[in-house]
Amino acid sequence: MGSVNATVAPFTTSNVILWFRTFWAIAASGFRRYSTYRQAALAGIVTNTVFGFLRCYVLLAVAGAAGSAAGYDRRQLTTFVWVGQGLLTVVQLWGWTELADRIRTGDVVGDLLRPVHPVTAYLATDTGRAGYAAVVRLLPPVLVAPLFFELYLPARWPTVPLFVGSVVAAVVLSFACRYLVNTTAYWLADVRGPLVLWTLGSGVLSGLYFPLRFLPEWVYQPLWIVTPFPSLLQTPLDVLVERDPTPVQVTLVVVQICWAALLLAACRLVQRRAERRLVVQGG
Q: What stretches pass through the bilayer (predicted)?
């Protein structure tokens, strides 16, 4: 038996350009990799569209004759649902266990021997996956919805760049959360427990099932600050439908970025600690 440890060269001014070139090369490879699953993408589009109708009619029923609920009018609720259905695959809350599987089988050793840090490599691949999902899984629901419902169009010019930045931050944050859940495989023989907890928590507390503002203010406001979950879906969608004034939108995106940076740092810390104890049979 032998221990495995990965050494990664520190960032310097001379290798920053090389780092970015490597990152985007891996991201492009991830884009091509996920673009091969055409049948799965088609099935996902149909599923997201069907659930879009179901969720939209439920929330419109909640709005009822008053035409609004929790500060959202009918157009905002419709946009919240349909763009949320598209973002679900872009952000990808669930369905990724590649790292945990490689840890369990010992294949993670190959990741540790590569010159690119595992967190960077997996993040780059996930960035390519998100880019492909933005084209194939986000656009179809957004194009289908206007045929049957009236959507909300942003009235303020800063909303669009803020929304794009919010989605990028949500993708990075989701990756960091999923990476941390997967790394529990370094210490646990079975990661199904952490995965179930993550699936339940991220679904309920991210705004996937219903807007978190449907909850009492004393419940959802602390959730936004002390947990990363609302930053996964609720924040991008609230920014898009202009639920708040522009200064509040900017604040929410800043909170997202802080959570993403904090959890990415946690990923690297956990990875470093895990490498100290990783033992491969026969190595």
A: 6-28, 40-65, 77-96, 130-149, 161-181, 193-212, 248-267
